[in-house]
Design goal:
395 residues, alpha/beta, Rossmann fold, 4 domains, three-stranded mixed β-sheet, 10 helices, 16% strand
């Protein structure tokens, strides 16, 4: 059954909002019964949201305000670092989420440095806990990227991530933030203001951390391509110069032969057509031309030899430069590979250092205040690990 409802224009002007399709509302009204037609109408005097409706209305109002401020604009979102040196995890210190994040990150890039900022992600105290963790992370500034994670939940369970204090704390971060709240329906305001969002914590870890094996493979491939390109760029001009030198030598020989043939032909013609005296003069001139030709031939050979030696010297220099260029590029690649390897935490461990983590939660212990007597701890070494128990914590 359905009952009609009426909102008069004078009443509508006083209402804080007008109803929309699909809303669940609490209505204050008067019953208007028309006996003649047997019809009942509700004359509405006041509207209000129900419990969940109030929450959604408040979130929508905050969303519109943030959107007007430009908090969701794409141009303010920062790119995630290609290879972070340290990753901050803001989530519950217990449960499957922290375990999944650590496992996925270390499978893709072993011994990647992680800093855990424990926070409540559900309940009345979660808002204050999340804001404190975000501010501490922003103050420490030791991480290159932040993952804010939770293992999903209902609309009410995710309310902390729709609170203005949490959204403002994410907006104020000086480090790129990626949210991974595990939800599949409504996006929270934290997702909208973050630099990147992922559907699950595992997906966030895969976005933030590349596979170390893939990076090393790409580095090796690019090194080979650079080496081949360098050799081609240096050797090809040398071959071209050598070919041009050979062509020049052939042209000089052909020109010399044509001139010699021409002189021989002229000599024969003079002997047949000129008187003796003229012939003698021409003979002397011919001898002089022959001597000049011989000198020219000798000079031509000298120039050809000089050009050949210069071409050979230039060819050898180009080959030497090619080898040196390849060696320099190979050295640069080895230096970069060594720098990449030196950044790995295992190199620090090989120098005699160790990493102590909580034996139960996996969090890194940096000072004595984080440990207590009887607490199980795990000591990570360059080779293997030690399982131990704290006898005494001395600050």
């Amino acid at each position: 059954a359905a009952v009609g409802a009426v909102i008069f224009s004078s009443t509508a002007r006083r209402l804080p909002f007008l109803p929309e399709n699909g809303q669940e509302l609490v209505v204050t009204c008067q019953v208007d019964y028309h006996a003649q037609y047997g019809r009942v109408n509700l004359v509405v005097s006041k509207l209000d949201y129900d419990g969940a409706g109030k929450l959604r209305a408040a979130i929508e109002q905050l969303k519109r305000r943030l959107e007007a401020e430009g908090a969701f604009n794409a141009d303010r979102k920062r790119a995630l670092p290609f290879l972070p040196g340290c990753i901050a995890l803001i989530t519950s210190p217990s449960g499957a989420v922290i375990h999944d994040l650590q496992q996925t990150i270390w499978e893709r890039f072993p011994n990647m440095r992680l800093v855990v900022y424990p926070a409540l992600v559900q309940g009345t105290a979660s808002q204050r806990s999340l804001v404190a963790a975000l501010r501490q992370c922003n103050q420490d500034l030791v991480a290159d990227v932040v993952i804010v994670a939770r293992g999903g939940g209902s609309f009410e369970e995710l309310m902390a991530f729709n609170q203005e204090a949490v959204v403002r704390a994410i907006q104020a971060m000086r480090i790129p933030v990626i949210t991974a709240l595990g939800h599949t329906s409504d996006r929270t305001l934290a997702d909208l203001v973050a630099d990147r969002e992922a559907r699950t914590p595992t997906a966030a870890a895969e976005i933030v951390v590349p596979k170390k094996a893939d990076l090393l493979g790409q580095l090796a491939e690019r090194g080979q391509r650079l080496q081949r390109a360098g050799l081609t760029a240096l050797i090809t001009p040398a071959h071209q110069l050598q070919a041009r030198g050979q062509s020049l030598a052939r042209l000089a020989r052909d020109l010399h032969l044509r001139r010699r043939e021409r002189l021989t032909h002229l000599e024969g013609m003079l002997r047949q057509r000129e008187p003796r005296e003229v012939w003698r003069q021409r003979e002397r001139a011919l001898q002089e031309c022959r001597r000049r030709l011989e000198r020219s031939e000798e000079a031509t050979h000298q120039r050809i030899d000089l050009a050949r030696r210069q071409a050979q010297s230039l060819h050898e220099r180009l080959l030497s430069l090619a080898g040196r260029g390849v060696r320099e590029r190979a050295g640069a690649l080895e230096s970069r590979a060594a720098r990449l390897s030196s950044l790995a935490p295992e190199q620090t461990l090989k120098r005699g250092y160790s990493i102590t983590v909580d034996g139960r939660g996996g969090g890194i212990i940096r000072d004595a205040d984080q440990a207590h007597k009887g607490q199980p701890v795990r000591v990570l070494l360059a080779a293997g690990r030690l399982e131990a128990t704290v006898d005494e914590a001395i600050p």
